[in-house]
Amino acid sequence: MSTNRVIIFDTTLRDGEQSPGASMTRDEKLRIARQLEKMRVDVIEAGFAIASPGDFLAVKAIADSIKDSTVCSLSRALDADIDRAGEALANANSGRIHTFIATSPIHMKYKLQMTPDQVVENAVRAVKRARNLIDDVEFSLEDASRSELDFMCRIIEAVIDAGARTINIPDTVGYAVPQEYGNTIAQLIQRIPNADKAIFSVHCHNDLGLAVANSLSAIAAGARQVECTINGLGERAGNAALEEIVMALRTRQDVMGLETNIDTTQIVPASRLVSSITGFPVQPNKAIVGANAFAHESGIHQDGVLKHRETYEIMTAESVGWNTNRMVLGKLSGRNAFRSRLEELGTQFASEAELNEAFARFKELADKKSEIFDDDLVALVSDTRASAGHEKYRLSSLSVTSQTGETPVAQVVLSVAGEEAQAQSSGGGPVDAALKAIEAIVDSGSNLQLYSVNAITSGTDSQGEVTVRLEKGGRIVNGLGADTDIIVASAKAYIHALNMLDANIQKAHPQV
Ligand code: KIV
Ligand code: ZN
Prior knowledge:
- The chain is an alpha/beta fold.
- It has four domains: 7-278, Alpha-Beta Barrel (TIM Barrel); 294-324, no CATH class; 325-384; 393-503, Double Stranded RNA Binding Domain.
- It contains 17 helices and 16 strands.
- Strand 12 and strand 13 (419-426) form a beta hairpin.
């Protein structure tokens, strides 16, 4: 591989999923992984195999089906973690085990309660064990940006000797600043005698809003792998955003002199897919993938762009996949057209029954909405799948009366584990009344942390996509629902969240 090539390592499905409320089902992860493969991401970190049986199966499903990207599983520097990762990756065309241990004084003393010698010993043992299972092994020094340089040199030299091919230097707590971080990378590469036997990688969190700047500084200093997520999803303030790094490298090739293998026209579709699956909306002014990223409002700018596009535009909207939201299907479209368009969008149906259910919903939607766009299809499949699987609660019917000057009243009929139950409630607005009526039946004891509505496409006949975030006993879940009627979409999203709380899936967190 050319020394000018930067490896793009996407961790949306692992670090991104660690965002409170962003947990995804196996099928949702597989859909995102297919889109990442289509975008030509080099490495997909599919999850943390030992975290839960669900995580293991998700990593395995992705490893079994992705052929063009390397599939990676995270593991702590523990034998059981490494073995589980190896098991999940057994059928991968190209697999990687990513093992890590903390190296900062504060983490070693308080979290690990290990001496530096013990940390080196564990790291070397973990890398050797992983190398017995797979050729491609990455080692991360957790909290590297607060670790001592001499100690980092020592442990990195040892793990490269033990067989690590990629050395990742994470800014775990988002503490670094660009010049300092770039300098650390340059020093490591210069001082470690066997540094040329490994690729140096960076992984930055965005607590100070510097994740992309720090990543670019590290790349300029010699790092050749960057770990990032779609839409910057991730723990706390998130990870470095893939779209920003890739487009910065491409747009400023004149300064950086580097390239990636990414098909940039797949960026916006990937952003929309991740947003619709996790329920995390993209802010309108977000670089590259925000709705306003290419919109010129001021008269002076509009005039300039019309006269000569490059007066105010440094890249084209088409180059990152905007304007690909084609009107593809309508009322008369058949099942085959429906299936094949969804396949192009990265969705494979698990069975004919699932296809039939989604197609029936598509027909219902086409009765209400004359033009069906790609985004409608993505939302429709997310909504169909949200209501499949674990389903204790199901919406049977909803009626709401709302009139100026009157208090809105909702009547809800739910099927609860197969038994019909109904309730009526008033509320501050029709959505409030509907959700209160559902609560009157379920009595979930959960706290509503977020309620958001997005119009999926433009036009007043657009579907509303609703996200409801509920918290109960420290567990946070996101429910999604889409419908042309936003009260129905809200009820669906609330019921989806209740079903997820009821499923009570627990998983381990890698840093704990
Ligand atoms: O932020 C971090 O340090 C991580 C490691 C596990 C790579 O996510
Ligand atoms: Zn991280």
